[in-house]
Design brief:
Layout (H helix, E strand, L loop, with lengths): L1 E5 L6 H12 L4 E7 L2 E6 L5 H13 L3 E6 L1
Length: 71
Amino acid sequence: MLIEIASPIFKCAEDENIFYSRLYGLPNFNSAVSKGSNVHLTLADTFSDAVFEELQIICDVWGATFKVVKN
């Protein structure tokens, strides 16, 4: 599953590191790649609603939104 996270706002390099570490900690994490001001997150196909809930929390902290690009 490919998810696009739009325009997270980082206060400093450490803040950005924390953001990515939170993504890396998601269940079924495969990869996270910066694409301009967006991040493309790839998760294994097996997922739960809890993953979307955690992703929403992460996006709320960094002022971002997300959408599923490819299921």
